[in-house]
Write a structure and sequence with these properties.
Layout: E1 5-6, H1 17-27, H2 38-58, E2 65-68, H3 71-81, E3 86-90, H4 95-98, E4 105-107, H5 117-126, E5 131-136, H6 148-157, E6 161-165, H7 177-180, E7 184-188, E8 199-203, H8 218-221, H9 229-245, H10 249-266, E9 283-287, H11 293-302, E10 305-306, E11 308-309, H12 322-326, H13 331-334, E12 337-341, H14 348-365
Parallel strand pairs: 1-10, 3-4, 3-5, 5-6, 6-7
Antiparallel strand pairs: 2-8, 7-8, 9-12, 11-12
Helix pairs in contact: 1-9, 2-9, 10-14
Bound molecules: pyridoxal-5'-phosphate.
């Protein structure tokens, strides 16, 4: 029988069974959370219970959680609504950050994918007061973590605000927005095992945002539009379960490290991107010398492994990854990288089997080291 092993959690996680149940039940319940009758009040309770779960996951207060249609909207809202006109973004941000302001200035990263703090400092010395710095907590392709606390301290000293895209960090590492002092944080439900099309922007203490979706006064006038009640309910359940699951993450990182050691022992000329710096526990991006990533994806898919390439292919056309190129990879190395990402329903055995398939392919088609 053909295997079917899903190792693409950073693209989207399978929806958790408890989420499916909660969403189905919410869909069966009538009520607009803004209505004052019994039905409306019941819907409001569902939304507020979910808001509390999201606040608990990220270490904030429920009143600072703004529900959106996903990570993309939360990033757009933060970058457009912060009130700051000068925007600094790192070179490895998600397109939903990189493409918001054509005039955004770029902060480079080193060959491990960590931002260059001295360049950031120089840029902030030019002008801090009017500036928003947008830095992701964990990169979606490599899993590399940024020193967010240091970045926030530096930015605040210079009068700048900080937005942090924590879509790929939430549920994988513990963090506390309030202790970090981040001004705007983005998270997304479907990376946690919740439904797609729902996310949140979390405001820092005492901050406000200029709404970008105008209409009703929902979400304390920060985001107009009737709330996606079933989606928000599912998001809340996924946030609670991800929060509880944080304690299992050391097992995930052990299994990931064992797999990487196995792959590198078989192919010492392969590169694991960000190997030398802290990463989230579930992500590996590795190149297979001599084998283009689309060939790897097709062969592995036929063998029953769902992984993805480090290339941006949301539009169907494959381009070398801007993240890997920013880390100094040439087109060839960037074009030979694939991403393996695990999650709540993965087992160490999944990675063990995957490693055998990857090594088998490398031995058939890869470029052996001299
Ligand atoms: N930011 C990062 C780092 C992501 O990985 C993604 C999704 O891939 C997003 C933002 C966008 O989130 P959504 O799919 O909820 O719009």
């Amino acid at each position: 029988m053909r295997r079917s092993i899903y190792l693409d959690y950073n693209a989207t996680a399978p929806v958790r069974p408890e989420v499916i149940e909660a969403v189905a039940s919410a869909l069966g319940q009538t009520g607009n959370p803004s209505s004052i009758h019994e039905y409306g009040r019941a819907a409001r309770r569902l939304v507020e219970d979910a808001r509390a779960e999201i606040a608990a996951l990220v270490g904030s207060k429920p009143a600072r959680v703004v529900f959106t249609s996903g990570g993309t909207e939360a990033n757009n809202l933060s970058l457009k609504g912060s009130g700051r006109s000068r925007i600094l973004v790192s070179s490895i941000e998600h397109p939903s950050v990189l493409q918001v302001h054509a005039s955004a200035e770029i902060i480079p990263v080193d060959n491990q994918g960590r931002i260059n703090l001295s360049v950031l400092e120089t840029l902030l010395d030019e002008e801090g007061e009017n500036t928003l710095v947008s830095i992701m907590m964990a990169n979606n392709e490599t899993g590399v973590l940024q020193p967010v606390e240091e970045i926030v301290k530096l930015a605040h000293t210079k009068g700048a605000l900080v937005h942090c895209d924590a879509v790929q960090a939430a549920g994988k590492i513990p963090f506390n927005c309030e202790e970090l002092g981040v001004d705007f944080t983005t998270i997304s439900s479907h990376k946690l095992g919740g439904p797609q099309g729902v996310g949140a922007m979390i405001l820092g203490k005492g901050l406000e945002i200029v709404a970008q979706q105008l209409g009703g006064g929902q979400e304390r006038r920060r985001r107009g539009g009737t709330e996606n009640v079933p989606g928000i309910v599912g998001f809340g359940v996924a946030a609670r379960l991800s929060h509880e699951g944080l304690s299992d993450m050391s097992e995930k990182s052990r299994a990931r490290d064992v797999m990487e050691q196995k792959l590198l022992a078989a192919a010492p000329n392969a590169r694991v991107f960000g190997l030398e710096v802290p990463r989230v526990p579930n992500t590996t991006t590795i190149s297979m010398p001599g084998v283009p990533s689309d060939t790897q994806l097709m062969v592995l898919d036929l063998e029953g492994y769902a992984v993805s390439s480090g290339s941006a292919c949301s539009s169907g056309k494959v381009q070398a990854s801007h993240v890997l190129k920013a880390m100094g990879a040439d087109d060839k190395a960037a074009g030979e990288a694939i991403r393996i990402s695990t999650g709540w329903n993965s087992s160490p055995e999944d990675l063990d089997l995957f490693a055998d398939a990857w090594i088998g392919l490398f031995q058939r088609k890869g470029e052996r080291p001299e």
